[in-house]
Amino acid sequence: MSDEGLLAGQTAVVSGGSRGIGRAVAELLGKCGAAVVVNGRDADAVEETVAAIGASGGRAAALVGAADEEAVATALIDACTGTFGGLDILINCAGVAEPQGSSILDISPAEFDHLIGAHLGTAFHTCRVAARLMAAQGHGAIVNTSSVAFLGDYGGTGYPAGKGAVNALTMAIAAELKSTGVRANVVCPGAKTRLSTGAEYEQHIHDLHRRGLLDDVTMQASLDSAPPEFVAPLYAYLASDLARDVTGQIFVAAGGFVGRFDRPTPSLLGYRDHHDGAPWSVEDLHTMLSTA
After folding, report:
1. Does pTM surpass 0.90?
2. Is position 290 annotated as part of the catalytic site?
3. Which end of the chain has fewer surrounding CB within 10 Å, N or C?
4. Residue 11: helix, strand or coil by DSSP?
């Protein structure tokens, strides 16, 4: 089945769309028929992506800037509605890597705030503007980018915290906007990009493995990731009407692997009716939790 025409007549914004996964997503959306506003911090990279989409027969416009800034996020949405006549799809791929070796032991408040802003700030500012427009028109698809790093397996501070916050924000958006016809989902991608190549990156992965944070399979997958083109189709699917019933989900895509995180639910460890019983004692809790 050809993806050509899958998004015909649709309009999209892709933050972080000038490089890596974002560029692969923007180019695929263009090939599927969507008109795309490409965003990134590097003007040359943005223009190169816009030109590539045009060379493939698609329509694209450029907007340079950091989407974690309110003014840029607003300009992105305005550029899409002003240039292409509407906004059907918002995809956030913008982000920055945690400094090599960064940990809670040495990161500065400024570095942490920068990481949170680049990930959670981008999602918040763009979604805040887009959600109002999409809810008013009764349809729209939002796809935010997270990472399996939110589990903490890759160490770090602001990067996993920001990605975990993106998950929570997206789930809240999906719940709040479900009745309006607006969908919101998350993709945790794994792909070889400029942020996941080079000697420093490889040393970092080997160090995490040595410390026991990554198992053998995860280490090998991190060192031998597939190109971004293997991840982009999941974004296109979630943006399309084929996924009209899919919202509030967190997906994983890495090479040929596609997965989904189950919604967290608490396991029952103990119960006491507060109307009839006293609060749990510390010893009660110790006995309960140590044998669970």
Report:
1. yes
2. no
3. N
4. strand
